[in-house]
Fold these 2 entries.
Entry 1:
Amino acid sequence: MAAIWGEISALNPTYAFKWVIRDFHVDGYKLGEAIKSSVFAVTSINDKYHWQLLLYPKGNIEYHKEFCSIGFLNRQCSKAFRGSITFSLVDGKDNVVRRIEIVDRIFSPNKLNGNPRFFPRRLIANVLRDGNLTIVCTVRMGATSQAEKDEMKVADERIDVDEKTEEKVDDESALRLREFDDFEHLLDEKAFSDVIFIVGGNTLYAHKCILSTRSAVFAAMFLHEMLERQENKVEVKDVDYDVFREMMRFMYTGKVNRLDSTMAYDLLIAADKYALDTLKNMTEKKLCDGLTDSSALEYLQLADRYGAKKLKERAVEFIIQHADVIIKSEEFKALPNQLVIEICGAMANKIT
């Protein structure tokens, strides 16, 4: 049974929900199969909302099968709202061992929002209390603070100045970049497309000539596999639709519109699969900038698995710098021996 408490202010009401899953276990669940909370109704100043939490014990897709994925559903009968959500995993001593935030987003009716890597499955045994799993979800309705908006405005103004300076320095290069942006209009344009991707139940139209130029993997696919089958449809089963679309945007325009840490994590995997080195480097940089005590070991294993050399080196450095905290964690105890040896070797080199 979901519990509710919280404070309500005139502009930004905040609600918190405690979800206790009795006798939690992962056995018997399939990839993509979810445990659903009861629907909880919330009445704000003007409207009534119906929300629900979903937990995927074995992940929502193949990439995340070693994680428990979390989702927040603003049900069909509710209105869209703007706000921020925090998911917290609580252990048997009421300590928050994992916290994931979704900041300043529009939560549309019947659209699932969440995080595919809420927590690694190996942590389950350490967080259960009498066999029960406890998750706290906090919903803060309303936009970001004015201070945050002002900060974003300053950053935007700084970008504008940089763009104007660049145009003065090299008008021709800037013009070419703007012309290149026109290719974004071709993304998912049905009229001139010659290949269709089916991703998570969604359809995305694309162009073989562009994709094969940008990726040797796509070139081989179009030249051999699809030629043999005489088909122009490709089903993608192991990449989320939002991730695949951002990857396609990069292939068409050389840019990514959304690059938070979650998207960067998934895009790195996709970039490795489709041999997009520039995109992979871009995501590595983003993840390097986002290293924390709680993410360093996860990013280290990601980098090791997908050959992200820069991220791996930076993650090892970060772990050494914060060893007093990180080596005491349950995640470090579960780290593969080979990576522990590499960390110890890097420590020894710093000492000598």
Entry 2:
Amino acid sequence: MVRVKRLVLDILKPHQPNAIEFCQVLASVGGDYHVTLTVIEMDEETTTTEVVIEANHIDFDAICAAITSVSGSVHSIDFVEVQNDTQQE
């Protein structure tokens, strides 16, 4: 199985929810999700962020759904790390 282990996403989000609440929403998607957020830029209504998600197996579709549920949007996938656990014989 090929698993996504780490993602770095450029995300545009409204000021609310705040950074802590936003990270909590993303971390709640998976039991072992570790989420960090860096604010890149702020304007009157939105915040541009870099979000790093690390886990044993990241469900990208579920992450995107969680981001959308709090009115955020993924602008780009800036980094991805995957691992192939399939045994070659």
